[in-house]
Design brief:
Radius of gyration: 25 Å
Structural class: alpha/beta
Number of strands: 18
Helix content: 25-40%
Strand content: 25-35%
Oligomer: single chain
C-alpha cells in the first residue's frame, strides 16, 4: 500500500473524489479537507502525476496526526520540524519506487500551513545525510531533481514526503486570461455529465476550455464561439458570435455548457456592473434556449453579485427545480415559458405539467454557488441543472 497526499485549489473539495477516481480508479481511503487530499493506492504511486488538477502530489514516507505534546507554536497542532526530522526513515519497500525515477539530486523543503520556513542548519544537514545514504542521491540546496518535504497543517496532520509533481509555469504556454487545464478538469467534474454529445463554450477566448474538453470528451461535438474575431480565427472550429445571440445553435440541442465569461468590463479603475449585468442577462436567456432539458451548465465568474442577480431574474431562477442544484439531475425538466417562441407552447405545457407533478420552489443562485480560489482570486462555480 502506498500513501499519497496532494494539494489543490480550495473550493473544489466537492468534486475532487470524482476527478481523482477518473484518473486513479483504484484509489481508496480518500480524505478530503480544505485544499488537501490524502488517499491510498496499491499500484504505482507515480501515476498521480496524471491528475493535473492536483497542484502538488506527494508520496508519503512518514506521517503524524496531531501529536500535541510536540506541537508547533502559533496554534499549529502538528509536531515541530526538529521533532519530525529525528524520526524519519524511508521505508525499504519505497526505495525501489523512488530509484526508478532516476533522480540524482534533491533538496529539502519545510512548509508550515502552506508557508515555507527554515530550520536549524544542523537538522537539515542530518536529514540530507540520511536521505543520501538511503537513496544514493546528493543534496542540492539550490534546486535538485526532486524535493523531500516536511509538511505540517493547522489541523495537526504532518508528513515527511517525496514530491512527485513539479508544475510547469503557465506563463510559458498559456495566454493572459486563459484558464489553466486543471481548472477545466474540475469544472467538468462539477458539470458531472456522462458521454455528452454536444458541449458549448460561448466565451471561447484563447481556447483553454475548448482544448481541454476536446481531450476529455473526444467523441463529443464541441461548439465554440467568441465575440472577438481575431481570437475566433486563431481557434480551430470556433465561430465568431455574441454569447447573447447564439442564433446558429438550435433550441434544446446542447447537453452541457462549461464557460468562463468576462468577470467585468472596466472603465478606468471601476467595473461597469450595468454592462456586465446586460451581458449575463443575455447569456442566460440564450443558454436556457439552446440547452436540452436535463442539461448541465457550469459557469465560472468572480462577479458573484452581478451574476446572481441576473440568474435569479432569468428563466433558470424563475422556473428552476430543487434547492440543491448539484443533486437535482433527476428533477423534472422544463422548457421555455415563452409561448411565442418556436415550440414555446409545448414547452409551456410541459412546464405546467411539471408544476402539477412536483410542487418545488425555484432555486436561487446562492443554492448553486460553489466558492473557489482560481489563480489566487476569489471566484465561484455555478452549477445549473435545467
Amino acid at each position: 500500500m502506498f500513501k499519497l497526499a496532494a494539494v489543490f485549489s480550495p473550493g473544489f473539495e466537492k468534486v475532487i473524489p470524482k476527478a481523482l477516481k477518473d484518473v486513479l480508479p483504484d484509489a481508496y481511503n480518500l480524505n478530503v479537507s480544505s485544499g488537501f487530499l490524502r488517499f491510498c493506492t496499491d499500484k504505482n504511486p507515480f501515476r498521480a502525476v496524471n491528475a493535473d488538477f492536483l497542484n502538488n502530489s506527494f508520496l508519503v514516507l512518514k506521517e503524524w496526526n496531531g501529536d500535541n505534546k510536540n506541537a508547533r507554536s502559533g496554534g499549529n497542532k502538528a509536531p515541530a520540524f526538529e521533532v519530525m526530522a529525528n524520526k524519519i526513515r524511508i521505508p525499504d519497500q519505497l526505495i525501489p519506487e523512488i530509484t526508478k525515477q532516476h533522480y540524482k539530486t534533491f533538496r529539502l523543503r519545510f512548509s508550515a500551513a502552506n508557508v515555507f520556513t527554515s530550520v536549524n542548519k544542523n537538522v537539515m544537514a542530518n536529514v540530507e545525510k540520511q536521505i543520501s545514504q538511503a537513496t544514493g542521491m546528493k543534496p542540492d540546496r539550490l534546486g535538485g531533481d526532486t524535493e523531500f518535504w516536511f509538511l505540517t497543517r493547522t489541523d495537526g496532520y504532518a508528513c515527511f514526503a517525496l514530491r512527485m509533481t513539479k508544475k510547469q509555469s503557465t506563463e510559458k504556454y498559456l495566454e493572459k486570461g486563459e484558464l489553466r487545464p486543471e481548472f477545466v478538469t474540475l469544472l467538468a467534474a462539477f458539470a458531472d455529465m456522462e458521454n455528452p454529445s454536444i458541449i458549448l463554450d460561448p466565451f471561447a477566448g484563447h481556447g483553454g476550455i475548448v482544448k481541454r474538453l476536446a481531450q476529455m470528451y473526444p467523441k463529443a461535438q464541441i461548439l465554440a464561439s467568441e465575440l472577438d474575431g481575431e481570437l475566433a480565427k486563431k481557434l480551430k472550429g470556433c465561430r465568431q458570435a455574441d454569447a447573447t445571440n447564439l442564433s446558429h445553435i438550435e433550441d434544446n440541442s446542447v447537453d452541457c455548457v462549461i464557460t468562463d465569461p468576462p468577470w467585468g468590463f472596466w472603465q478606468g479603475d471601476l467595473r461597469d456592473d450595468k454592462k456586465l449585468r446586460a451581458l449575463y442577462d443575455g447569456m442566460l436567456k440564450e443558454l436556457f434556449r439552446v440547452t436540452k432539458p436535463g442539461a448541465s451548465i457550469c459557469i465560472l465568474t468572480a462577479a458573484k453579485e452581478v451574476f446572481e442577480a441576473a440568474f435569479d431574474a432569468s428563466a433558470f431562477g424563475r422556473f428552476g427545480r430543487g434547492r440543491d442544484a448539484v443533486a437535482s439531475q433527476n428533477a423534472v425538466s422544463e422548457g421555455t415559458p415563452d409561448t411565442c417562441a418556436p415550440g414555446g407552447q409545448a414547452a409551456h405545457n410541459a412546464l405546467s405539467n411539471a408544476h402539477d407533478a412536483v410542487a418545488t420552489p425555484a432555486y436561487k443562485a446562492a443554492d448553486i454557488r460553489n466558492d473557489v480560489l482560481v489563480n489566487g482570486k476569489k471566484a465561484a462555480v455555478y452549477v445549473i441543472r435545467k
